[in-house]
């Protein structure tokens, strides 16, 4: 087979050596050195789609989306199969990061996904319509103090966060994050389904809604549920971190783990922190499983609403409900 006037063959030993060394450097975080080697490899074998796929992958790691798009398009131009190539997925991620929606649509369709609505039904500057990909988990800050939270998949590269992340993540409820295509782990529910855990690449759209932490005195689980319901009815969220947060080592976090609660039917799903070393204990849970009235709760709501929401919650049952130490944290 001839491509650009050259006979296609297996990559040379020099190409393989440069590429192998580059990925070792990528693993060490030495992206500049890796980039020089992958650029050299592409010069040695410019007719190989793998040369440009590898460069697109490196630019994705560096969040250099213009370069990732350019290299990705060179890779797909050299493909010898019509659908399903991961090259198209990387193009889709880069296009989504750049809000290049016509290219994103083309990439997902070339990969083999059905994208609702046609170009005639939406403007060139609009994202694809809801692709109904369902719930998934996303690992925020995967290279740091990782935290797995639940969200709603908007398309193959974006998730809207529906848990309330802990303050250490720097993330907020309602934010949209760009995520990678290959899941690292699963979360199983008591109802049976398992959901993939994707790694965050970067924040795609911030949320204007601040995160608050408050200590509740909730005599029963029903009292706790009431504050979560009240926040949801107002269009925002509250989450009992005392029940929903657990510590996991990285190995466990990247495996198939059961959720702490079977609550995927709501937006208040359990999340975890991935920590090196041994698994940590479930936060604020007693060994005998008895209810503890003092609850640490995260609330996502505007400053103009949060105090009134808590006061209304406590006033509905003053003998069993109280709150204190409200603080904005993110």
Describe the structure.
- It is a single chain.
- With 330 residues, the protein is of the alpha+beta class.
- The protein has three domains: 2-115, Tetratricopeptide repeat domain (Serine Threonine Protein Phosphatase 5, Tetratricopeptide repeat, Alpha Horseshoe); 135-205, no CATH class; 211-328, no CATH class.
- The protein contains ten helices and 15 strands.
- The protein has helices spanning 13-27, 31-44, 49-61, 65-77, 86-97, 101-111, 221-233, 241-244, 250-253, 303-315, and strands spanning 2-3, 6-7, 135-140, 147-155, 158-161, 176-179, 186-188, 194-205, 211-218, 237-240, 245-249, 256-258, 271-275, 294-300, 321-328.
- The strands form three sheets. Strands 3-4-5-6-8 form a five-stranded mixed beta barrel.
- A hairpin with a 2-residue loop joins strand 1 (2-3) and strand 2 (6-7).
Write a compact overview of the structure shown:
The chain is α+β, with helices and mostly antiparallel strands and 330 residues long.
Average residue pLDDT? 85
Radius of gyration, in angstroms, nearest whole number: 23 Å
Largest sheet: 5 strands, mixed, barrel
The H-and-E topology, N to C, reads as EEHHHHHHEEEEEEEHEHEHEEEHE
What is the first-to-last residue Cα distance?
57 Å
Structural class by helix and strand composition:
alpha+beta
Q: Estimate percent helicity.
A: 25-40%
Q: Would you count the extended β strands for me?
A: 15
Q: What oligomeric state best describes the polypeptide chains here?
A: single chain
Hey, roughly how much beta strand do the residues contain? 15-25%
* Count of helix runs: 10
Total domain units: 3
Low-confidence stretches: 1-7, 261-269, 274-287
Sum up the overall morphology in one term.
elongated
Q: Tell me the strand order in the biggest sheet.
A: 3-4-5-6-8
